[in-house]
Design a protein that fits this description.
Elements (H helix, E strand, L loop, with lengths): L4 H26 L5 H107 L3 E8 L9 E9 L5 E13 L16 E3 L2 E11 L5 H5 L12 E12 L2 E13 L7 E3 L2 E3 L1 E5 L8
Antiparallel strand pairs: 1-2, 2-5, 3-4, 3-6, 6-7, 7-10, 8-9
Helix pairs in contact: 1-2
């Protein structure tokens, strides 16, 4: 097992002292009894060797002490630095803890404010919706509204004559309709074309007051009726793209500062009645008008 430096030096001192004493004993034994001065000189030499060993040992002890003091100082500095590091870490952890609490409190407050803002925004939206609903109710209860009362064949249909249709409209609202503009047309088609209604609404119109008599719109298919045309008309339950006459039109008007419209579309059909005359829409005829599958909306 390896010795520490101080243990090694103590062992060397003991060995040197033992060697000096052995030399002394050997020298004394070898001297005659009448050589006392030589014995004294030998003792002096031994003493000098012991003194030299002691001085060397003292020097070694001082060096060891200095080394130990430096080591102790280094250990103290290391302990101080370590303690300071631990203290700094503790301070940093405490500051971080305080910052975390501040951030948590701030986040909580922000969430509260956000919640208040969301509630306020929701309340504002609900109030705005209620106001819009109230305005809508007020508007709907006071606006003008042009509605179609009836559309019918005006005269019996016969070969060689034109087809006459009349449509009745009335302002069924609660205020006058201003700038009422109308356009209508009559076409023979095999089904409705794609796109919007092909009418041209004029820029200027007239005022239509509330209630009757309203407005009567006459539409005439000026092309004379032929027998094959009547035979080819679609029935109430059409089977395909039969040729027929379409009567359509549109009203545009202004009420309470807003633009509105009413449109209509009908086509001529034949009854599946076995040829028996049936009284329909104030005239005796075997034909009637059916509403188109589009162009019959109003707002």
């Amino acid at each position: 097992m390896a010795l520490r430096p101080d243990e090694r030096r103590a062992k060397e001192l003991a060995e040197s002292t033992s060697a000096a004493l052995r030399d002394l004993a050997s020298s004394i034994r070898s001297l005659p009894k009448d050589h006392i001065p030589e014995a004294i000189e030998a003792l002096r030499n031994v003493a000098n060797r012991i003194d030299a060993v002691a001085m060397q040992n003292n020097a070694n002890n001082e060096e060891t002490a200095r080394f130990q003091r430096r080591s102790l100082n280094a250990q103290w500095w290391l302990l101080t630095a370590t303690t300071a590091a631990f203290i700094a870490a503790g301070i940093y952890a405490y500051v971080a803890y305080l910052q975390k609490n501040v951030m948590n409190n701030t986040l909580t407050e922000v969430r509260k404010q956000s919640g208040f803002s969301e509630k306020s925004a929701s309340a504002a939206m609900e109030a705005a919706k209620a106001a819009r609903d109230a305005n809508a109710v007020t508007f709907e209860s006071t606006r003008a509204r042009i509605a179609r009362r009836n559309t019918q064949i005006d005269k019996p249909i016969s070969i060689g004559n034109a087809i006459n249709v009349v449509s009745y409209f009335e302002n069924v609202g609660h205020s006058a309709a201003f700038n009422v503009r109308i356009d209508s047309d009559v076409r023979r088609w095999r089904g409705l074309p794609d796109g919007p209604m092909p009418v041209k609404i004029p820029l200027e119109g007239e005022t239509l007051e509330v209630g009757p008599p309203g407005h009567q719109l006459y539409m005439i298919d000026s092309e004379p009726v032929k027998e094959d045309f009547l035979k080819g008309l679609p029935s109430i339950h059409p089977k395909g793209k039969e040729l027929t006459t379409y009567f359509f039109g549109r009203f545009n008007y202004v009420t309470l500062g807003q633009e509105h419209y009413t449109e209509f579309c009908f086509y001529l059909t034949g009854y599946d009645s076995g040829g028996l005359p049936i009284r329909v829409q104030a005239v005796e005829t075997r034909y009637t008008l059916m509403q188109c599958n589009k162009w019959h909306r109003a707002d």
